Structure to design on (617 residues):
């Protein structure tokens, strides 16, 4: 469970990233955060693992209170909280397996990392993670030789290698084409359900958020302006969050998951019969 | 497609010819000011000239005179400004061209740089040039031991220098250093190391621990090259680290890696090609530098060359120089091959 109590983020240049955010995200929940760019979605996600330090309030991940000033505590927290990025953030010059093993860093002695001599059980965990995203055969290929969708799967495997309680995903499919975006989101959703990992995803595509999330949080100008189950996030509500009417750019289209469609959204019915 | 009308008609679609925008004309007033600067520079050159050559301008009723070289300088400056103005080069560009001419004139005249002296010294140059053009090939093989020392010195200095340089670069770049203070301190130390040239280091080490006379020449040479390499590798590599893709670094942070792990896993792979190519570059520099270092007594091929120079055996010096060119070329080709394989 993640709890935000009166969280404020003020950047060093005085820009207010978050103001008075109060949230409770339950264990095993899949939450999508929507909002226009600059609304504070990335800031919200990055406060959870301390990549952006909050300036006031109390933040708890599980039982632990997040303390952005203690580097050692942050490292311990980050070993339990995995993160997925829009641009995958892989080291493209090394193998897929070595990228996944970056996720074992917190559990690996520094000298082993320096030599690149990982324990057999860590490697096994990395292989299992790759198996879960279905690219175990690519383990010894260079990360740069993979397609965008495969690279994002490697990033997901890297997170899984951490054996995390929480997954944070910052626009995980924004640089992928619509069919690939759906495949990656389906993988993420499946893994989240299999392992019961609390997952927070930033999205700017409304239809993806509605298709895969349990709960939607709408943000505007650093504040939470909507919080509710997917069914309540109707077009009218989201237009209120965005302060403008919805356009074709707010949806990715492509193939959604059959059966998870909510009436009144932009996914064409024909596309649902996958 | 010969006329404008044809060019604008493709199939059924007709392109309307819009008026082409004119290149903006640079401010004439500023160019006038630049001409004024050129005149000021001319006055300065006149006041500080060394040469007494003058130019006489007969006007019939009176003959004007002017210092020869400053007048040529002024003419070049004004001509350049005119060309720049006609080519519609911006005022900053015009200023740059003017600065280039002024600075090179001023600096050249300060050190009396002129090629006019060389023909008058030809009797001195000619016999040496003749010796250089007729190298003593049989001499090359007799200094093989010195070559071995030179190459060994370069290898040792490169390997150790790159290893230390890597650590210093990691500490110096704000991207990979523990904090700003460490990064600033290491950068300051590094500037000091770099401000002393290789020959300076060699002189220091020869003075401290002894040179060839004590049988320690190569040792002093390796230490000198080492300091030289550390300075170069740390500087180039820390700048490469500054510009790595921050994404993987953030990902390693988010996975709970500590600083050492993050630098090893996310930064080192990204800078590795650069690191290897800097290593090959300093190896090449070391081979070349060791020729100069021999002059101050650190052993290697440089000391052999110095010996022959002192004996005025220019045909032997020429043989060494040609071998040096060959060795540097070989090292260069080898490093290009490695770099191509690596990237």
């Amino acid at each position: 469970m993640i709890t935000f109590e009166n969280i404020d983020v003020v950047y060093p240049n005085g820009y207010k990233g978050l103001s008075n955010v109060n949230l409770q995200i339950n264990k095993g929940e899949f939450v999508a955060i929507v909002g226009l760019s600059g609304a504070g979605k990335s800031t919200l996600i990055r406060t959870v693992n301390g990549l952006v330090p909050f300036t006031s309030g109390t933040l708890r991940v599980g039982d632990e209170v997040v303390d952005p000033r203690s580097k050692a505590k942050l490292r311990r927290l980050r070993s339990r909280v995995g993160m997925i990025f829009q641009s995958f953030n892989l080291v493209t010059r090394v193998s897929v397996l070595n990228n996944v093993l970056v996720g074992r860093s917190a559990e690996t002695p520094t000298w082993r990392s320096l030599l690149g001599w990982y324990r057999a059980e860590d490697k096994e965990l990395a292989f299992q993670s790759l198996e879960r995203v279905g690219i175990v055969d690519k383990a010894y290929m260079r990360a740069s030789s993979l397609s965008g969708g495969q690279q994002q799967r490697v990033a997901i495997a890297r997170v899984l290698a951490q054996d995390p309680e929480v997954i944070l995903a910052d626009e995980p499919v924004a640089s992928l084409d619509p069919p690939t975006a759906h495949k990656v989101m389906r993988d993420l959703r499946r893994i989240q359900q299999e392992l019961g990992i609390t997952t927070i995803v930033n999205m700017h595509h409304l239809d993806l958020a509605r298709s895969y999330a349990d709960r939607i949080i709408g943000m505007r100008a650093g504040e939470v302006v909507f919080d509710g189950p997917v069914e309540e996030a109707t077009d009218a509500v989201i237009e209120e969050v965005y302060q403008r009417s919805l356009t074709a750019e707010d949806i990715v289209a492509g193939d959604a998951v059959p059966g998870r469609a909510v009436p009144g959204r932009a996914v064409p019915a024909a596309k649902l019969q996958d | 497609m010969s006329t404008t009308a044809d060019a604008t008609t493709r199939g059924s679609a007709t392109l309307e010819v819009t008026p082409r925008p004119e290149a903006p004309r640079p401010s004439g007033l500023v160019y006038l000011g630049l001409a004024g600067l050129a005149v000021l520079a001319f006055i300065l050159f006149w006041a500080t000239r060394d040469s007494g050559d003058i130019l006489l301008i007969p006007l019939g009723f009176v003959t004007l005179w002017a210092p020869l070289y400053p007048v040529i300088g002024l003419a070049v400056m004004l001509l350049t400004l005119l060309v720049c103005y006609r080519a519609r080069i911006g005022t900053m560009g015009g200023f740059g061209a003017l600065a280039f001419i002024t600075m090179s004139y001023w600096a050249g005249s300060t050190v009396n740089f002129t090629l006019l002296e060389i023909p008058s010294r030809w009797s001195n140059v000619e016999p040496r040039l003749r010796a250089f053009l007729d190298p003593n090939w049989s001499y090359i093989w007799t200094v093989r031991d010195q070559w071995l020392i030179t190459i060994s010195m370069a290898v040792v200095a490169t390997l150790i220098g790159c290893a230390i340089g890597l650590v210093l670069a990691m500490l110096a770049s704000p991207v990979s250093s523990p904090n700003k203070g460490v990064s600033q301190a290491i950068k300051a130390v590094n500037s000091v190391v770099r401000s002393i040239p290789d020959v300076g280091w060699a002189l220091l080490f020869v003075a401290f621990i002894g040179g060839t006379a004590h049988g320690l020449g190569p040792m002093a040479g390796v230490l000198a090259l080492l300091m030289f390499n550390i300075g170069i590798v740390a500087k180039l590599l820390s700048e490469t680290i500054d510009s790595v893709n921050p994404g993987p670094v953030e990902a390693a942070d988010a996975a709970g890696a500590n600083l050492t792990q993050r630098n090893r896993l996310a930064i080192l792979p990204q800078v590795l090609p650069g690191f290897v190519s800097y290593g090959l570059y300093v190896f090449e520099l070391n081979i070349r530098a060791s020729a100069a270092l021999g002059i101050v007594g650190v052993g290697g091929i440089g000391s052999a060359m110095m010996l022959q120079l002192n004996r005025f055996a220019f045909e032997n010096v020429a043989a060494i120089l040609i071998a040096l060119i060959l060795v540097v070329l070989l090292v260069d080709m080898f490093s290009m091959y490695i770099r191509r394989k690596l990237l």
Notes: The beta strands of chain B are 9-10, 13-14, 54-58, 63-67.
